[in-house]
Amino acid sequence: MSSDTDAPDLTRSGGIEKLREGTYGGFFVACAVISVLTTVAIFVTLLSDAVAFFAAVPYSEFLFATDWSPNTVGGRRIFGIVPLIFGTLMVTITAAFIALPVGTLTAIYLSEYASTRVRSILKPMLEVLAGIPTVVYGYFALVYITPLLEATLFPDISTFNALSASLMVGIMTIPMVSSISEDAMSAVPDSLRQAGYGLGATKYEVSTGIVVPASISGIASSYILAVSRAIGETMIVVVAMGSQARMPVIQEGLLGLPYFNPADALLDTGMTVTVAMVQIAGSDLTGGSVAYDAMFALGLALFVITLIMNILSNIVSERYREAY
Amino acid sequence: MATETGTKFQAVSRLRGTVFEYVSLGASVFGIVLLAALLVYVSIDAFDLANASPQWLLTYFLTLVVPLIGFCLYSADDRQITRRTGLAVGGGLVVSALVFTGVEALVGPIDRLSWPLVYLFVFVVPTTGYTIFAANQETVGGVGFGLLGRLLGGTALGLAVGVLFLVFDPQLWMLAYTFGLLPAALAVGYGQWRPDSGMSSKALPIGIVGLVVAVGLRQVVPMYPTDFIIYIWSVSMPIAAGGAALVAGQRGRTAALSVGLVPLAVAVAGGFAAAGFGLPSKTVLLVLVTAGVPVAVFISRTLTDGEGTIGLVLPILLAAGVLVGALIVDFAGFPAPDPWLDPSYVTSSPSRTPVDAGLYPAIVGSVIIIALVAVLSFVLGVGTAVFLEEYTAGSGWMGALTRLIQVNIANLAAVPSVVYGLLGLGLFANFLGFGFGTAVTAAFTLSLLILPITIISAQEAIRAVPDSLRQGSYGMGATRWQTTKNVVLPEALPGIFTGTILALGRAIGETAPLIMIGAATTVFSAPDSIWSKLSAMPMQIYAWANFPQAEFRYGVVAAGVMTLLIVLLGMNATAIILRNKSEGV
């Protein structure tokens, strides 16, 4: 290449040469270490402010109080994570109802049914779903999906609601499920399929009876990753779901068992963990206040949850993988 | 499958399998179709197509779309494609008119949608995309769209460079260029010309000394030429010289001179003329150079090759189509739509009144952030990837470190972006004091956010370099760094660029981290330094989405979303073209 000017130094005795090798090697190590430092920095940043938060707010209030009002002017400020967890769960579960079945079916179609040509068109288009900025999804949910739901299915849906936000979160996570699951299904050796056909199974039976069970670890790990992505999703819910921490209205049902109507909660505004963080960030950033520290406590909770889910997904895909 | 007729296996029912196949096909396209419908609506809103009269649509269909499709079919020169296109365009007209009218009669009118629009989005746009794709495979189409891409890409690049000079000091740049980069480049050039002189290896020290001198001089020198002259000397001339050098090797000096001098002369003349028309002369100069030089190189190359030269008329064809269409619409007085996304939208500041609202400061903010992120994440990402792929061993403490980093990267990729925002807030904004919502804080935060993606894609690109090349280099006695620099990185560079651009596409749409570090939702003037508080396109969209007025919700924000998506599309297209180029070689 361009350095054919350098005369080859076969003895490799030059001090400059050694220095140069060492410098560049050190530079690359430094780059690599930065990625580890990032993790450490995230942990330290979150933890230091979270510790300050728990010095001011008892654990019991954070874990069990059923109200979240960090910026109340007059009354007492309450930091209870329960309604936020409820909101997050609601969005995540609803999104999972869309992303998991659709993503799995997509993966089966791509891996078992689609021709090479169709696959080469569908796969990039599915990736587009994951590439759209989430604030755009939020805007779609607020401006197009909610009015559509109001006009067709749910006339009493509120402007900001959990349902349309969850729908969009679900759409966004489809490619995550489909691409990882498809990789797992494509890794199932053809001999298994041939054996199935040899026994007289139809393509449907081979797909659902052989390929899916054989790749179940990959599918499960994709589910976990998709759910973890949905938990951490911020902009869609911020834009489309509003920001009112709410608890479900518990009703007395059959046999005195308490229950709540999920439709009531879905059609109304709510607040997730991420929304609560963004809301505090909109009012107070300089630090020092309890609300500021609360943001980091929530961040820590989010970080730990997603980290655990990520590790879990790794374990599932490693431990339960069928080795071929 | 196993349903041979005449045996007793024929009892196997195909129904369940067929239903399952179509259900899963439906699932595969469910998300895509929904997103496509939403994109159609947002473009209808952004360009106000709901108010476009059928005559207006027909005029532009005839003057713009039909010639374009015609060009593509001429280039593709394939009977089957022509027949399919004709069928889709002609049959689609009938189908969309009938089906849409039928649906409207049964269900009732659909908001902001008419059958010409349905025809446009369901048949014309996909068919045009298909023919463009088909034409691009052939020489004539390749030439035409290559020229068009260079025009558009060059213009975007020129605008981006102009935006960067809003923040970075042009006078410092001039000194740095004059004393550092130019001598270093000359040294490299001389070294290539006279390999014995060993000048190439002296380029780096020369450049560093020059840069130090430049920074020192910036404090001392009191007088500078005007910005216009600075741009000619230190931006336009090197680009023109680069273009000329590219051509000179293959096509001789005359071609090189014309490729270098013609765009330069046009640009300077255009710059002076622009001042007369009240346009920003510096921006015009930059755009004309960044678009002109690649175009000149491309034209020169095509003319020398002599293949598919007819394709060069494509931009003229399209420009003429727009012009003729505009004339007809104006002359006949067809009611034209009043798009929200128009030149004034991208050049004016945000406003409380929807009609005046613009995205300019947010666009500038996004460009600056992305430029910084590109540099930071490229250096960090490539450095880490080189370490992980070239410098580590499989075992020992190095191996353990490698595995640790690898696991760590995978985990970082799954951390929610809002947590990165907290990192930026706690570490960069508060602890290190980079300021709330400044370009520096935003750039550092977003670089860390996309770092896992950059690293992983760079690793893949480096891994794709065949091992035989490395062994060859080592066999010649090259050191590890020499192998990396001379063999691995040049081979892997297109792949690395592709991955980095895709990762930057992720960064440009991120909003949550920007909110957490305190980026402004709305700023009314473009930032003037990397330390000033700025906004970005997604931040502005977020701010506007909360406005209750319908003009904002369905107009201004739609235009913002469209701008963001167009920028993303451009970046992804660049990445894909780069990838195809590198795979094609």
CATH topology (fold) name of the largest domain in chain A: MetI-like fold
Kindly state the number of beta strands of chain B.
Answer: 0
**Greatest interface and its residue counts?**
A-B, 100 and 104 residues
Structural class by helix and strand composition of chain A: mainly alpha
CATH H-level homologous superfamily name of the largest domain in chain B: MetI-like
The sequence of SSEs of chain B as H and E is: HHHHHHHHHHHHHHHHHHHH
Fourth-level CATH superfamily of the largest domain in chain A: MetI-like
CATH architecture of the largest domain in chain B: Orthogonal Bundle
Strand order of the largest sheet of chain A: 1-2
Poorly predicted residue ranges of chain B: none
**How much strand of chain A?**
under 5%
Number of helices, counting only DSSP H or I runs of 4 residues or more of chain B? 20
The share of residues in extended strands of chain B comes to under 5%
The radius of gyration computed from the alpha-carbon positions of chain A, rounded to a whole number of angstroms, is: 26 Å
Helix content of chain B: over 70%
Instruction: Examine the coordinates and then state which fold CATH places here, giving the name of the CATH topology of the largest domain in chain B.
Output: MetI-like fold
Roughly how many Å apart are the termini of chain B?
42 Å
Structural class of chain B: mainly alpha
Average pLDDT for all residues of chain B = 85
